[in-house]
Amino acid sequence: MDSILVTGNGPLNGQIPIAGAKNACLTLMPATLLSEEPLTLTNAPRLSDIKTMTLLLQSLGAEVSALQDGKVLAMSSHDLTSHTADYDIVRKMRASNLVLGPMLARLGHAVVSLPGGCAIGARPMDLHIEALEALGAEIELRDGYLHAKAPGGLKGAVHEMRFASVGATENMVMAATLAKGTTVLKNAAREPEIVDLVRCLRAMGAQIAGEGTPTIEIQGVDRLHGATHQVVTDRIELGTYMLAPAICGGEVELLGGRLDLIGAFVEKLDAAGIDVAETDKGLKVSRRNGRVSAVDVTTEPFPGFPTDLQAQMMALLCTAEGTSVLEEKIFENRFMHAPELTRMGARIEVHGGTATVRGVERLKGAPVMATDLRASVSLILAGLAAEGETLVSRVYHLDRGYEHVVQKLEAVGAKIERIKG
Ligand code: EPZ
Fold first, then answer.
1. Rounded to a whole number, what is the distance in angstroms from the first to the last CA of the chain?
2. CA 328 to centroid of ligand 1, rounded, Å
3. Does ligand 1 lie within 6 Å of residue 330's CB atom?
4. Which GO terms describe its molecular function (predicted)?
């Protein structure tokens, strides 16, 4: 297994290009199942999760070709041969459950393995099931698989979600595009990845309004046609790299960065003493004073502070002046990075969903272990600012969500290398 060796090397300066969004691409790719005509995605990120989704779609009979060094995904679901998403693929990546809604809508039946356990929380699918049952689907769990059918086709309905789940919103919106009549989804998730999905579905001929608000209205149509869609910028990759000059000093421009994707995060950076300015190519980030100030953070659904930036923010706050309190409200077990940061000299106390971080002058390099995608990159950020060397093992977690992390950080002056396992 590969590792990444990071040596604290002072301020960072230069430019980092931001890729297309993993979490948008993972819901856009299953949208191909809704139509017989080709769907092409441009600005696609090159990540192992995208490869897993490709394998899943191909296992259903879809054609998926990665062109232009993987930045373009040409897909066609003209001749689907299976309606079963196998456990062997689904257990590798939970987002595989996003084929459930589209298959049910297009084929009238679908069999999708339940994903099983996850490091950051239980992550059940009850909200997905409730949403699709509201559209008239009959769903039962058998041998670890959800067996879903809609013999007479799905029917539009008014449905209020108990929690604004991203995945359940995506599954329901995709399914409702081909349902008979009108669907009104209340308490819908508002994440930019959902706005991007709706833009793509609209380009395929869907009739949808209200994306980005708590109420989404979908007028079902008989069929969807082909389209080409550019994947939105990855706001989590963006936020992650904005924290590099924040934690090390210097000035970095994030190419393709957009403020509207990360509002609540930028407010917290500002409170911590980090300057963020718009440029004609993206966003420029620099630290105002010598040391960042402590801030309190609570994770929330969009437009609140994203849970996918909590670990990275904790790395920054480990070196802040004062004490910060981080509350994780989305996932019940998302502080696995805290004991690893403590190995680097951080002072963190975790009680349930609350972590109290008392800032230290400087972290010290140490061998640490990645436990999940966002935890792994928080250890790399900490290593960039630490004294000496930090060896981060199990970086396969990182490959799921960050392309070319070593090259991107090296380009702004980081001392970082990948060690083949
Ligand atoms: C998406 O996961 C993202 N993944 C996650 O990013 C992200 O952390 C999450 O949204 C929240 O922003 C993708 O888009 C592929 P949810 P998703 O359904 O859709 C509970 C990363 O690092 N819940 O909004 O699975 C659930 O357990 C990943 O890139 C139910 O209880 O998130 C969780 O506590 C990690 N029942 C909360 O809701 C359900 O049926 C939020 O989950 C569904 C969810």
1. 4
2. 13
3. yes
4. UDP-N-acetylglucosamine 1-carboxyvinyltransferase activity
Query: What pairs with residue 148 in β-bridges?
Result: 110, 139
What is the structure's pLDDT at 288? 81
Name the residue of 27, 146, 163 whose CB sits within 8 Å of the most ligand 1 atoms, as the mutation to test its pocket: 163
Counting from 1 in the atom list of ligand 1, the atom nearest the Cα of 236 is 29
User: Which pair of structure tokens corresponds to residue 93?
Assistant: 């990546």
With the most atoms of ligand 1 within 8 angstroms of its CB, the residue from 97, 159, 165 to mutate is: 165
Mean pLDDT, 10 residues at a time, over the chain (421 residues)? 95 98 98 98 98 98 96 97 97 96 98 87 93 98 97 96 98 98 98 98 98 98 98 98 97 98 97 97 91 97 98 98 98 96 98 98 97 97 98 96 98 98 86
Residues marked as binding? 22-23, 94, 123-127, 308, 330
Catalytic residues: 118
**Minimum-distance ligand 1 atom for the alpha carbon of 331:** 34
pLDDT (0 to 100) of residue 116: 79
Residue among 209, 252, 264, 200 nearest 229 (CA) = 200
pLDDT one-digit tens code per residue, 37-85: 999 999 999 999 999 999 999 999 999 999 999 999 999 999 999 999 9
- What is the CA(120)–ligand 1 centre distance, in A? 10
Residue 44 token pair: 């696609």
- Is the entire prediction scored with pTM above 0.85? yes
Q: Do the beta carbons of residue 279 and residue 259 sit within 8 Å?
A: no
